[in-house]
């Protein structure tokens, strides 16, 4: 259900609003679960241009680090561009495969952001 909801949001890089909504609905749950729900952030990995997916460097469930290349796109002009994120975490959903045509800001994947500080923080 969560992934279906996130797939509808194409132009937002990180989503926080749904956390507050869920928090308010779950007031009767144990405090530990509420804290876990509150700190998890889900980010949309979006296409940086129109073109074709040339390479996919990740799979669902993979852990990725900040600025690690996730995808390589080939623009309509033949230029290769890498898609990276400034956050680390686990890939929850992979929405494209090599050869797929994409448009700017199209959702390529959903990433569950890691709340642990890294060497870049």
| Element string (H = helix, E = strand) | HEHHEEEEEEEE
**CATH-defined topology:** OB fold (Dihydrolipoamide Acetyltransferase, E2P)
Taken from the alpha-carbon principal axes, the silhouette is elongated
**Total count of domains:** 1
CATH top level assignment: Mainly Beta
Rounded to the nearest angstrom, the radius of gyration is 16 Å
The secondary structure category is alpha+beta
Mean pLDDT: 77
Low confidence ranges:
1-17, 32-38
Main β-sheet description: 5 strands, antiparallel
Which architecture would the CATH scheme give at its second level? Beta Barrel
Give the fraction of residues assigned to helices.
10-25%
Tally of contiguous helical segments = 3
Distance between the termini: 32 Å
For the largest sheet, list the strands in their spatial order: 1-2-9-7-4
How many extended strands? 9
Can you give a write-up of this model?
The protein has 121 residues and is of the alpha+beta class. The chain has one domain (2-112): RNA polymerase II/Efflux pump adaptor protein, barrel-sandwich hybrid domain (OB fold (Dihydrolipoamide Acetyltransferase, E2P)). The protein has three helices and nine strands; from the N terminus they run αβααββββββββ. It has helices at 2-7, 17-25, 31-39; strands at 14-15, 41-46, 51-56, 63-64, 71-75, 80-83, 89-94, 101-102, 107-113. The strands form two sheets. A five-stranded antiparallel beta sheet has the order 1-2-9-7-4. It has a four-stranded antiparallel beta sheet with strand order 6-5-3-8, with no helix packed on it. A hairpin with a 4-residue loop joins β5 and β6. α2 packs antiparallel against α3 (31-39). The longest helix is centred in the N-terminal third of the chain and has 9 residues, at 17-25. The protein starts with a helix and ends in an 8-residue tail after the last strand. Mean pLDDT is 77; it is low at 1-17 and 32-38.
